[in-house]
Design a protein that fits this description.
Elements: H1 10-16, H2 29-38, E1 40-41, E2 44-45, H3 52-64, H4 80-83, H5 86-90, H6 95-102, H7 105-108, H8 113-131, H9 166-175, H10 179-188, H11 193-213, H12 218-243, H13 248-293, H14 305-311, E3 330-340, E4 343-353, H15 354-384, H16 390-400, H17 409-431, H18 439-484, H19 488-494, H20 497-520, H21 525-557, H22 567-604, H23 615-632, H24 639-661, H25 674-700, H26 718-730, H27 736-745, H28 748-828
Helix pairs in contact: 1-6, 6-28, 8-9, 9-11, 13-15, 13-17, 13-23, 13-24, 13-25, 15-25, 15-28, 16-17, 18-20, 18-21, 20-21, 20-22, 21-23, 22-23, 22-24, 23-25, 26-27
Length: about 850
Amino acid sequence: MATGNSFQSPHRIIDLESPADENGVHNSFSQLINEQNDDLHGDVIEMTALDQEEEEEEEEEDDVMGLEGPAFRPVTEFSDEQQQTDSLIGERWSSDTLRVLSSMPSRTIGRSRGAIISQYYNRTMQLRRRRQSRPSIQHFPRSARPSIRGYRVETDGTGFEEGESKRERLVNNLQNLSVSDRVRMLRAMPLCLVEKKELRMLAMNKVEHSLSQSQIPCCSRFKYYIITAVRHGWFSWLSFLSSLQLWQTALKCVGGRFGTGVLSYFVFLRTLVFFNVFLFLVTGLLLVVPQAVTPPHHEQVTSTWGLEILTGAGYFSESLLYYGYYSNHTLSRCSRMTQSENGTSCTSSFSYNMPLMYFFTIGAVFFVTCIILVYSMSKSFGQSFRIDKSKGLLAIKVFSSWDFKVSKKTSVRLQRENIGTQLKELVAEVNRQELEFPVLQRLCRIFIHMLAWIMCVGSTLLCVLAVYYFSESTYMDLKNIAISNSSVSLKDVSQLALPVVVSSINLLLPGFFNAVAWMEEYDSPSVLNYISISRNLLLKVSVLGVLCYRWLGRVPSDPESLGVQCWESFVGQELYRFLLMDFIFSLLDTFFGEFLWRLFSQKALKRKRKPVFDIARNVLDLIYGQTLAWLGVLFSPLLPAVQMMKLLLLFNIKKVSLMMNCQASGKPWRACQMTTIFITLLCFPSFLSAAVCVTYTMWTIKPSISCGPFRGLKTMFQAGKLWVEGLASSNPKLHWLTWVHTSLVENPLFLFLSAGVFLIVIYFHSQVVDGQRKIIELLQEQIENEGDDKKFLITRLQDIHEQRRAVSSRRVRETSENSSNNETSEHFS
């Protein structure tokens, strides 16, 4: 008999097949394969000669035994990938193969508690050897002394039955680890929470018992209490900060009922609120507050609040809201008055160079905003364009998404709705299949798409031409009103015409785009949203281009013909009117497009359907309004405050209307990249165009002569140059500042280099993300290959067993034939 592997009796094999047995086999699959290959000679394993009775029992058992259970449940329909494993699933495995399967780590971890404790005992032992220096062995308790078994990654569970139990050994090892290593090790254990809590309590009790037995110095005890108090205070502070997040509960409600697509709109709106809060704080502290402390002398204007709130003119034209109110000299304010023979004089005063601070504040605001946008965009790229397969996310969401710390009924309901909606989106993404159309139908769809784009581009071009000619018409009307000396109220009312026309186009034309998209019949809701975003973006950019030509080309060229003394304040007023009209028409769209349409659909049409929230149009409206705010920072320092109040009102109005009048999309879809696209659109078309327009104004356009902090200068850039020259003339050691200002600030090459650096950073970050995505794809392919290797090894092991069984059967038959022949020969003899 060969002394290789001696397989046990069938009854013992059945006991080993249960992975729940704590004393079961816990050797890895690779170790078993190596043990089997050591005894292979060719393709046949030399087995211990079994008697005939055991062979028959084993053959009967092999004929009836198959893999049954959740992991090997028969399936009727298979995909191409599943058909590859059909041979594995459908096989009737032998007892030896089943023993190998039951002892694999993937089938043992999470089921066999004893195997887990054995494995993590070894890990804790290895961690102790790495983290701690070797003290004298007499300082260790007997159960915690290192053994040669600790050098193995996996050890046989039967080796721990000698002496103390495996559980006691693991607790002793956890006791000798640091607090952070102990917590990390307990988190990594695939045990239930009750078991982990019990192990933690045992380890902590032993640590406290050992500490109480030893004499701890008072200083060390006091230090321990301080560290514990600081950590508790830090975690309490983090919890308090998380509770202060703006609109956290409202966002959870929206995401739970309407999905991640609608949620991305409200998250983007909150982001814009933070941008405007930053703009308002910087301009308010550095420009508005110093000018309010030392107000200039202006003529009092009679106020008619009803019309002035809409037009932004009248009383507001001589206020802190616009550029023309700010002084062009150094502000000073006496802090202490002294009496002398010559009269009253200031001994100390507050001085503030308003032109210089105005120039550098606007530049710093745009520079910091650019950095924040680039950082947000790169971070969003890294989060949204990673490899997250829907099947893996679906499993994670099903098994590990519930937060068991939630106890309030409202929180439980919100979490249940949120998880349910995300599961619908993931299931829809998993089940989504690209439809294959015949060639003729494909050509027909391409023709329909081309026709739709021609209609959308043509309508956009017509609307842009209409805005341009109407703008020229209003420009000529302003000239005529200035010549005829008409009333101021008539002039202000006539200036509302252009904002009303532009806002009407922005309201009506997206509805036409939606009708065209309905004609195209897109299968994917995400593709439909991207197409709608691109068409609405084309409309907004074209209209803003015509308006920028009016504000920075026509108006500054000849402001006297319009009867305007300060063209910067005039442009600020128009931006205020456009921003206000955009808000009013957004409310009209909410009222007519959502509320009245719901009533009409339910009352007149007797249908239960409600309108679906239009993500593309609402997001582009936000980007349009934020572009106006960025353009108006130079001409109206308080315009970000107006935009901030508008966004706060818009969030609450849109949320209430969404809950009352809208329904979730009929086709669930996961908006995994929507936030990234919104930030990208906010950065490149919106912020970049606003920054270019403001830079062009400060570099090339001549400021007004009679108003503003830059009056009397050729360009706004001269304010910084005059200040640097004044410093150099008063102190020759600062002469190098002139060269720095000329080379860095006035030279456009520095601006282009800075923009190039930002673009290079974005490019490199995108390449890094792309490289990580490729590496993840390779690792996933390697994992799949490892699974194929396991299938191959299991099949190979089964083939070897079949060959061994055939050889054993042949030997039994030969033995029986020989015995019968011997009996026959003896009978005849």
